[in-house]
Amino acid sequence: MKTRTARLALVGLVAAFATVAAACAPDAPPPWEPPAPVNWSFKGTNITVNQSQDEVRDPIFGTCISLTGCTDEPYLLQVAFKVRIGQPGSADAWVVTGSTMPSLAPGDSLALSGGQQAKVDFTGVQPLDILSALNPANKMDVVGVYTWAVDEDAINSLTGGAGSVATIFKNALNATLAAGTLPNQDANALVGMIFDALFDNIGTPFNLILSNIPCLGLCDDVLGGAVYVGIGATGALAGIMDAALASATVPAIDIPLVDVPPNIQGGGFFTMGGTKNFTQAFTGAGGQHTYGFQSGPA
Q1: Is 23 left (phi over 0), alpha (psi -120 to 50) or beta?
Q2: Ramachandran category for residue 88: left, alpha or beta (phi over 0 → left; psi -120 to 50 → alpha)
Q3: In this predicted structure, what is the pLDDT of residue 251?
Q4: What Cα–Cα distance (Å) separates residue 136 from each residue in 28, 95, 181?
Q5: Which pTM does this prediction carry?
Q6: Which helix or strand (DSSP H or E) is residue 159 part of?
Q7: What digits encode the pLDDT tens for the residues 67-87?
Q8: Nearest residue to 200 (alpha-carbon basis) of 171, 221, 225
Q9: With bands split at pLDDT 50, 70 and 90, how would you rate the model's confidence at 223?
């Protein structure tokens, strides 16, 4: 059920890809070479604090009574992943933690720079075009991020949990996509494979349990999560996928019983065809932060 929305949204892409591929395929397939590898990135670009996560005020005098102050100190945490479909052992996952931003009150906005962007670099991504995708010897790369919107407090309780999620992602992708095959002319099935691999395997290792121990409001708070998936497509194939993915949505995924890892509140899809911008509101832990994100050449 988790991936049904995304799958149904891509039905048009399946037919379009099959039609174009069939029209372009010659009688005897030569060893079509894939395009040159590219370096790609995903980063935060801006933030608006819509509602302060830390703010607690005296109901009579309006005085701030929060132990951590009444402004937010946001930062981004990204669990990045990369896998080459059909290449055993190719999966990798890692954590990028952004720099803490200056204190922001409700209504404040900030253009992110430097470490605040929590920039993820995907090096050596192998994109495929229509003809190279038809050659079974060529393997398609899939990249992405599981983005957490965080408000900093006194205790960083999230590093261990994020590292555990990265390990889960790496093992799950190696057991599924890296050991599998690219669905023939079926991007619908590809998206389903990705989400099933990532979120049907979330467990509760020790570090995740530690990340959910109450600490009297002094631990860093996660407002929510989002998932952005990049398909290794370029050229005409990227154009076909981008057109079909324009109306596709990432399904909301509730991860029960725990705050870490956070529920999936949105996200999006991109290809290696060009720069793409996203906007996502994260609502939780008593606050709301809206971020801008960008995928594009590194």
Answers
A1: alpha
A2: beta
A3: 83
A4: 13, 32, 9
A5: 0.85
A6: helix 159-175
A7: 656 789 999 999 999 999 999
A8: 171
A9: very high
Q: Is the pLDDT of residue 289 over 60?
A: yes
Distance CA 165, CA 218 (A): 22
Phi, psi of 216 (to 5 degrees): 55, 35
Q: Which one-letter DSSP state was computed for residue 260?
A: S
Q: Which residues pair with 143 in a beta bridge?
A: 82, 230
DSSP code for 178: T
CA 190 to chain centre: 16
- Most distant pair of Cα atoms in the chain: their distance: 80
Task: List, in order, residues 6 or more apart from 91 with CB less than 8 Å away.
Answer: 81, 82, 83, 169, 170, 171, 173, 174, 177, 178
In degrees, rounded to 5, the angle at the alpha carbon of residue 253 between the alpha carbons of residues 248 and 259 is: 140
Query: How far apart are alpha carbons 82 and 123 in whole angstroms?
Result: 10
DSSP output for 193-225: HHHHHHHSS----HHHHHTTS--TT-B-EEEEE
- Residue 205: count other Cβ atoms within 10 Å of its Cβ: 15
Contact by Cβ (8 Å): 78, 118: yes
Q: ∠ CA 126-138-9 to the nearest 5 degrees? A: 70
